[in-house]
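ugh ok so i messed up the first submission bc i forgot one of the chains. this is the corrected input, ALL of the components this time, i swear. 1650 residues overall. if the numbers dont match what u have on ur side tell me asap before i send this to the collaborators (the ones from the other lab, u know who)
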Amino acid sequence: MKINEQLIEIQEHFGVISSEIILITGSIILLILGILRLPLFWIKVFAAVVLLGSFLFAQQVSGFFFTRTIIRDDLSYLMTQLLPLITLGVLCFKRQAHQSYEFYFLLMSVLIGSLFMVGSHNLLILYLAIELTSYASYLLTGFHFNEKGSEAAMKYLLFGGVSSAVMLFGISLLYGAHDSLYFDTLEFSLLGATGLFFFLSGLFFKTSIVPFHIWVPATYEGAPTDAVAFFSTVPKIAGFAVLYHVFKWTNGLFNPFLEQLILLLAILTIVWGTLAALRQTDVKRMLSYGAVAHSGFILPLCLVMDTYSVFKYYVIIYAFMNILAFLFVQLHEKEGENLSLSNVSGLGIKFPLLGVISVIWAVALVGLPPTGGFMAKLFLFSTAWQHYGSMDSLYWLTFICVGVLSSAASLYFYLRVPYFYFFKEDQGKKIKINKRYFVILTLLAFTLILLFIQPNILDRFAPMINP
Amino acid sequence: MSSYILSLIIWMPLLGAFTLLFFNERQTSGIKIVALIFSLIQLLFSIGLVWRFDPNYGDHLLTSFQFVEKFSWISMSLGSFGSFNIDYHLGVDGMSLWLVVLSSLITVLGVLASWKLKQQVRSYFMLYLLLSTSIVGCFLALDFFLFYLFFELVLLPMFFLIGLWGGPRRSYASIKFFIYTLVGSLLILVVMIALYLSVGVLDPTSEMMIHSFNLLHMMDSNYFIEGSSLAKDSVLTFMGMPLRAVAFLALFLGFAIKLPIVPFHTWLPDAHVEAATPISVILAALLLKLGGYGLYRIAFSIFPDAALHFGYYIAIFGVLAIIYGGLNAMAQNDLKRMIAYSSISHMGFVLIGLGSFTVEGAAGGMFQMIAHGFISAALFLIVGVLYDRTQNRKIENFSGLATKLPGYSFVVMIVFFASLGLPGLAGFVGELLVLMGAFNVSAVDGMLPNWIGIVAVMGLLITAAYYLWTIQRMFLGKYWVREHSWEPKMKDLEIREWLIFTPLILGIVVLGMYPKIILDTMNHSIELFIAHVGDLKIKL
Amino acid sequence: MIMEDYLLALILLLPLLGGIMAYTIPSKSGIIASIFLSLTTILAGYYLSFVQGTLWMFQFEWLPGFVMGFAVDRSSAVLILLVSLISFLVHLFSIFYLSEDVHKDRYYLKLGFFTFSMLGLLMSDHLILLFIFWELVGFSSYLLIIFWFQDVKNAIAGRIAFMTNRIADLILFMGLLMLLGSGNDGFISSLGPLPENDSSTAIGICLLIGVLGKSAQFPFFTWLPHAMVGPTPISALIHAATMVAAGVYLLFRLFIVFDPYLLDWIASLGIITAFLGALIAACQTDMKAVLAYSTISQLGYMVMGMGVGAYDMALFHLWTHAFFKAGLFLCAGSVIHYLSIQDPTTAPQDMRRMGGLKSYLPITFWSYLVCMMALVGLPFFSGFLSKEGIILGVFSWAMQSENGLAFALPITALGISFLTAYYMGKQLLLVFFGSYRGEKSLKMLQKSWTEILPISVLAILSLGVFYRIHPLGGDLNFLEYWLGTQPKVEGSWVTPMIGSSILLVLLGLGFSYWTYGRQGMRKMKSFNSSRLSIFVQNGFYLDKFYMGILVPSFDWLAFKTSKVDTVLINPFFNKISVSIVVLSKVTDLFDRLIVDGLISLIKSVVQILGSMFTKFHPARVQIHFVSAIIGLVIILVWLKFAL
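and heres the new structure output, hopefully the right one now
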């Protein structure tokens, strides 16, 4: 293909990434608007309009674009629909007007990076997209502008740097093995497998799989809560989507050993996350370990094919639960101080509604009815059992058992928030709560329950082209 | 027979809970009246259900359900699974009928028993009514998913009801309760998923496998997909055991923790001791029955082959519970703890009845559950009467109460003797039937050896020992209470308390003298149940 | 026969109804209950008058597919009359005996309930139904024993009595269940001999234990003396005449089920009990205890009679014994009541401080004398007829037996006649003769008719003429009329046997007079001084053994079991949770150390390096360039050499 033709093709293909383009333009305008020192409300409104625009203009097409570097399929369509919406949820968090436009700009940069991650079909593009999300994330982490925030950002940066180096090394090995950077040309070879492993470790870092998770608690603890809510959802879900893509297209690379390895990692992640969360008193830290455990649950879903619906359902529910939980946490936070369990002691009498909501998100994160979290776990375990049944693989069975047991254990720590809320004595700490947020919280909680009662409403959301 | 009576019974309390949303926290009497009205309506509907129930309906377990309501609830396509179908599927048969009636009755009595509650009345009754909905829902669901939903839904309100309105160690007890039963229900969840994937029908038009959670399909071996993990011919094993056996054991354990069986029973005394009286009543009278009912309806009906294989061991667990629970009860000095252990002991008979695989045994187990529902409710209310007056339950702190509280002691006498199995009262019939089943089997095909029945009878002796001892220590002898400040409060039962006790005592006496009322409606279903299990007995 | 249904239902329910009525109208409770009982008695008598030969049956489905039934034949009809008659008399006597008690209403309710249960027991024709009433009888007896529950001693005694009964009852229950399980439909009237195998022996043993428990036979007899703490009319009704006879009645009903081999054992146990009971009775100082052990002894007679196949005579003895023993107890009640009013002390039943009551309680004395004569078995009194019948039965059984040891039974039975005569004579002398040994002087009391009537009726019914005109035998046989034709015991040994029996009785009476009557009452101080007699007086310490060893070891077991929960199971699950917590701490710590440690290491390294390098960094830009160029040159040189 000549350059000319390629250029023409690229020109034609711009329509496919319209939502990304809207986001890019919007975020640049946002940055410029920042000079005007608009009130926070209007910044949020503008950001919301941009996000909604990208949501609405998402294209449902299928195929390769931009000289086969960009791929469009059901999954990337789902992501272009879902990720802006999640970001929209993050906008609901409260924020000081001070430097908010930079914050939202960075937020959108991460979003753009995540969308490109999902859309890439080329290792290089993928790497660039990941770097885009990473840099913006490092900055977001330190947005408290205090020592703790900087430390968290520093940690994140260091680990991120190392992992991206490792990932780049893996990509170079893959290139060396196959002379190509496209996903679908990768084939099995020893070198390729080694490269793939290094490459995956970079992705595991993004998706916080044990042992690449160690940045998570520190970062979540130090970063602003809305940023945490964002990290724990958008880039992470995108990372899983990439994993899904990689496993899908590199099917030829697969041998049982790798599958077992990944299942082992998933099991390890669940166990580690659950155990570490058990004794945390800082709510955010606790939720961060819970998020690690959830990564372990999602990971096997990327491994097996034809689980698109389950994957979709799980990540959507997961996003809902996390946004709700972190929004709840932020509501109780005092300025510049992390929320510890004792801070919510005995609030249940003052705010019974909030207490009920805390029960709902806790129960959803554990995976109990009547919340969407249960349906997600149900689908997940069904998939796992299906694979166990068809392959008689002990790893799958172990995964199910560990998953079930960790659900029981996770009940203990997730339920500590409502437990402190209702069962402990009121410590007399004054916590001001903006009543406006009650509406949002209630809506989100209600949606979680609705997703249990009628999970098939999600069928309408980002439907598959050829189901 | 299309009617929505079952839905009405299930959702009526929930409707009450929603109604309570419109009440102010301070309108306590209004809240109580609303709760009472809605539970009474539920009771009326269940009585109506009995009225219209046809005791000889159907000629096979799978077709014997009446008042069936079936709607598609969730139907979503999930890739390789085919489509994911959950039905809203209700139905009642002779086994569940009386449990429903019992639940509605106990709910009403529980509302009356909580009449004096002062703190956070609205939340209490909302949770209480939610609990009632989920318990009745469990008994009526014919879809495994729906059942599981209700089964789990019991946990949360119970957790808060114990944890918020309980005694001094309530948080420990509530968490212990939650974790224990959650582990059990997660086991059930795994089996439920496995069953779901193993059961299905081929859709002729799209050639897709339609899986479902329909319990009736799961009970019917024709619906199992060939080669699926839990099919009859499945070759899958887990630690050297066939997967079907493992699945049965998981279900058994899941339900038995709730029943409870002996090594996993320690949540029960703690939960009982810490819970408030009405909650203890619900816990003992209804929650334990969920475990038993689950064994009947799910574990045994779906895996009759595995159940038959393990029948002997199940009966051994029953005997263990009887003896162990009895001895433990003997050693307690807290009245409530003693009664909690006696519950464990009495539930052991259900396991023996099931393990005997006879109509008598199964009917006896079922009857034992209902009788125990009445008796244990009355027992915990008895403790409540004392606790209301003195905030104390230690046996050694009271003596000669019969002199001062004759009415109360009269009630105690009847209920204690009913619990120790005095003929003519409800406790005897279930035990008689179970033992008849156990001894029958030993004579016919040697499934259960004689010693099971013999040891179980010894359990009755232990029961008699601790009840008589308690009567002697607390109610006979010279009147004496430990604290002088209790003296003015030691008054005999008031009208509200008589109102609670009267239906229970009537129930105990009527069930004991004329058990046919219940057994007539139940018998057909039990026969079908045993026939269903017995089908395999012949094949083996 | 619809009329019979109603009639029997009335007989059965009237006592209960009377009790309930008495409870609702406390002021007239005694009279009301007695009226109801008198109706029952009249109806029972009326029923008995026409039941002849016919068998009444009433069946109903209690559980689905599980039919139970009542049936009355002549032998049960006789006993129904007996129970209702004695119950009626006891009701009457109670009006007198409990005239001061405030809880009479409750008493009559319990009494009515007991009578109802006992009648039900006699009427039931199904094993399970029989067991139901059997248990109710035990329960109501418990209620009556603890009637004066304010004294905790009574409560404990009641519990012990009930528990002992319960043990035996549950074993009986097992036997009944096994009997049902072996393919029996459970109707007593259709019971047949069991096929001989292991289970038939097991069933027999279980049933036997049930009988032994209820009839207070060895080794279960310890409960009966405990039961004596109840009001004395209760002892008369329940623990002398009716409830304890239930075991014998059951034996009679289930006779066909037992192996012949087992029957020998039954006979032996019966004679052992009879002997031990008589021995213990001879050493008692308590007036009611003598009668209680005497009851045990007489029941042993009946059980032995059943065992040797003389069940007709055993049943006859049950009938006669009921009258004279109830009479004796009521007399004791009259004495106790009298003394507790005249001379209240802590031990109103102690015979050592009685004496000379003959002149104060003449009617009681004469009735007592008659009943006692019946008990010891003197001719012209009812006891003689039945007792001789049993002894003859035993003797003829021993003659037919191949085992020579079998003769031990009739010989022991004769010996017991002597003992019985001895202890009854002793009681008579101690209570009624001599002079009063208490502190206060006694006064004559106005006799109430409710006291006199029951006692004298029972005494009159203890006369032999009602049962057989001819004092020593003859044709007009009560038994033949009511119980059907009996096999005649004939042989040349009959007359010497009867003769020696009478002789032994007379000897016993004489011996008691020789010890207690002749030398006056001076021996009172040294009464029961020897260790042996104390040992015997305490019932061979069997009760102490049960209460001191068996029960505490059971308690110990219960205590240890409860420890399993608190020491084993709970800590086990706690350990699991603790270990999870520890593991979680470790995980958390690991995360913190690795992350924070690594980061702070890097941070400090960077800081140190940075501070080092800032020293090398001069301020001017030119120097930067120079140093850069020097560095480049060094690298180039190094490359040159390296390549």
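quick check: The interface with chain A takes residues 74-81, 84, 120, 123, 148-149, 152-153, 155-156, 160, 163-164, 170-171, 174-175, 178-179, 182-183, 186-187, 189-190, 193-194, 196-198, 228-229, 236, 238 of chain B (CB under 8 Å). that seems consistent at least. Residues 5-539 of chain B form one domain.
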